[in-house]
Amino acid sequence: MKSDLCGPDFFCIFVNMRKGFDIDLSGMNTFRMEVTCRCFVEYESVDELLEILSDKSLPRPFFPLGGGSNLLFTKDFPGTVLHCGMKGIKDLGSGRVYAEAGMVWDDFCAWCASRGLWGPENLSFIPGEVGASAVQNIGAYGREAGELIESVSCVDAGAGAKVEIPAAECEYAYRDSRFKHDWKGRFFVTGVTFRLSEEPKPELDYGHVREAVKERYGTDDPAFLHPSMIREAVTDIRKGKLPEVSELGSAGSFFRNPYVDGATMETIRQIAIEEGLGNVPSFKVEEDCFKVPAAWLIDKCGWKGKGFGGAAVYEKQPLVLVNKSGKASPGEIIALEEAIRDSVHEKFGVTLEKEVEYV
Question: What is the pTM (predicted TM-score) of this model?
Fold first, then answer.
């Protein structure tokens, strides 16, 4: 099977492959890191996954890999990489939709929009697969996957059993969930049930979404909007500032947007005034808590377009680190990340946290 992330120059080893040893992973991670795994297995059913997890001949640890879009392989992986080959989707009625973990996320967004279901349209064109959306709690333009999820279907590796986990137990937070912490290595996501809206619920008040919708369609009146319209506008925005992974390796947004208190926010504003950096974009989350775009902080430290070895900061979006040479090593990506973090902390007193998972 071929991932939609694969372009003409982006070889994907998923094609006609179920199991192999000492496999090149450069075509399975969007950063294009030239690393290998000791074993690779793709499964086509939940029962097959249960068999794989109980197979003591397979090298440990197990690592579930989706589209490989939010991670950085720092070295060869000594265990077994698992990929979900299940890509089905089912309309459960009343806005409820079940999608299998291996379905390409943007295909899911397109499917929902085409049926007039509101919710995922602002998350369009995010690379990766449905299973990863439930783990990472992906988000963009005012929406997060966790807000749309009703429950997550998993295999409990320890118990060797199928389980259904309500969204409330996943503890979804900004780019976070229990799957990334105390549940890591225990639960393998096989599918996700979403509860979407059949009534118009456009989210336009984040970034340039409203502006893009009005420019494209001449209106932002919910009565005239369709989720496919929001999806197209969001896709245009993302294409304009993010690199195509088939042309330039990256992992999408590398850093999380930091949350700061009022005193730190005032310090940032004073620095901006003193250095003529313009207005500081920020969003008040709650009393004495503000979210500041990491991209703005990185840009004002002069990093846009600059790099280290084969790695660089993308010239159109400083939140994105890229494998500019096509041959960047994991060490070069990490060195660039650390230099950016040190620079932002020295200038603004803010410590950036990476969104990308290191493997």
Answer: 0.87
d(CA 112, CA 128): 16
Q: Widest CA span of the chain, in angstroms?
A: 63
d(CA 119, CA 143): 8
Check if the beta carbon of residue 137 is closer than 8 Å to that of residue 172. yes
Can you say whether the dihedral through the CA atoms of 282, 234, 168, 181 is positive or negative?
negative
- pLDDT tens-digit series, residues 182-199: 999 999 999 999 999 999
pLDDT at 245: 80
Residue 248 near residue 311 (C-beta atoms within 8 A): no
CA distance 109 to 124: 6
Strand boundaries in 217-327, DSSP class E:
249-253, 259-260, 283-286, 289-291, 307-308, 311-313, 320-323
Residue closest to 23 by CA, chosen among 53, 72, 59, 49: 59
Residue 212: closest CA among 232, 227, 226, 228: 232
What value does the mean pLDDT take over residues 301-314?
A: 95
Contact 221, 187 (CB under 8 A): no
The SS3 of residue 54 is helix
Instruction: Give φ, ψ of 61 to 5 degrees.
Output: -80, 170
Let me know how long the chain is.
359
Residue 84 buriedness (CB in 10 A; 0-12 / 13-18 / 19+): buried
- Sort 138 into a burial class: Cβ within 10 Å, 0-12 / 13-18 / 19+: buried
CA distance 274 to 272: 6
Q: Which residues are catalytic?
A: 175, 253, 355
Check: CB of residue 44 under 8 Å from CB of residue 88: no
| Cβ-based neighbour number of residue 247 at 10 Å | 12
